[in-house]
Specification:
There is one protein chain. Strands 1-7-6-5 form a four-stranded mixed β-sheet. The protein has a three-stranded antiparallel β-sheet with strand order 2-3-4. It is α+β, with helices and mostly antiparallel strands. The chain has two domains: about 10-120, Four Helix Bundle (Hemerythrin (Met), subunit A) (Up-down Bundle), CATH 1.20.120; about 125-250, CBS-domain, CATH 3.10.580.10. It has helices at about 10-30, 35-50, 60-70, 75-90, 95-120, 125, 140-150, 170-175, 180-190, 195-200, 215-220, 245-250, and strands at about 130, 155-160, 165-170, 205, 210, 230, 240-245. The protein is elongated, with a radius of gyration of 22 Å. The chain has twelve helices and seven strands.
């Protein structure tokens, strides 16, 4: 008999997926954040069971049921993976190789849960990154460059001539390094993005745009270059509500 409650809606699954991804990124970025990241598993367990229980172990059945729905790992091995994660939460200190081992096992378990949740989600709005960072025509080239480097982005959406485009790091790089000398490079970095685009020195790519209700099965084949942009076209506002990259649906 299933231990997972009936009637979990897409918004709940999406929230669980977001929490897992954020926690996984945290533990990969900071090796000492194991416990903080592991708390996310309890929050997912609360959604699956529909109630608050006492500790990670009390959500064992629900979490393992979800995990087993998406992977080919034998139940005993999956259970052992869960127990490693659970028991490590009770250990006060992790050092060196042991800490890295525990972090890698936590990440492994989270990836399995993410895969299981993704199989339940079908629409762009379920997996898209909300409130995406955009480039603006009034931005200086240096500001766009800094935004890309700070966030490790290879592209940014930009609205130009009444439609959405994709501005790539390749285009910015080409523009900057065509400078003839240091003074020219400084002037290029200080130029407004709109000016560089209008003169044709920065080339934009046409964006693939989809509405929030679009099915992933229809979106993926059309994501040939760059991310997919999720756009609401109410009253022709073309409001950007999210972005969907290959990483988000991988």
């Amino acid at each position: 008999m299933s231990k997972i409650k009936d009637g979990i809606i897409d918004a709940e699954w999406s929230d669980c997926l977001r929490r897992l991804r954020d926690a996984r990124a945290l533990v990969l970025r900071d090796a000492e954040s194991f416990h903080e990241a592991a708390i996310t598993l309890e929050r997912v367990g609360q959604v699956l069971s529909g109630r608050i229980k006492n500790g990670l172990g009390s959500y064992r059945s629900e979490l393992l049921e979800l995990a087993s729905s998406a992977c080919s790992i034998e139940p005993p091995e999956l259970q052992r993976l869960f127990e490693i994660v659970r028991e490590s939460r009770n250990m006060a200190v992790h050092d060196g190789a042991w800490a890295r081992h525990l972090n890698s096992r936590l990440v492994d378990f989270m990836l399995i849960l993410e895969q299981a949740i993704m199989e339940k989600l079908q629409c762009a709005s379920d997996l898209m990154v909300r409130q995406p960072l955009t480039a603006e025509l009034w931005h200086l080239v240096s500001q766009v460059r800094q935004a890309m480097l700070s966030n490790s982005y290879s592209s940014l959406p930009i609205f130009f001539e009444d439609r959405w485009h994709i501005l790539t790091d390749q285009a910015i790089m080409d523009y900057i390094y065509r400078a003839s000398d240091k003074r020219d490079k400084k002037e290029r970095l200080s130029a407004k993005l709109e000016t560089a685009i209008q003169t044709g020195e920065i080339k934009l790519l046409d964006a693939s745009c989809f509405n929030p209700e679009a099915k992933l099965v229809d979106i993926v084949p059309r994501m040939v270059v760059g991310p997919g942009l999720i756009v609401e076209d109410r009253d022709e506002s073309k409001r950007l509500v999210g972005i969907l990259t290959p990483f988000d649906v991988l």
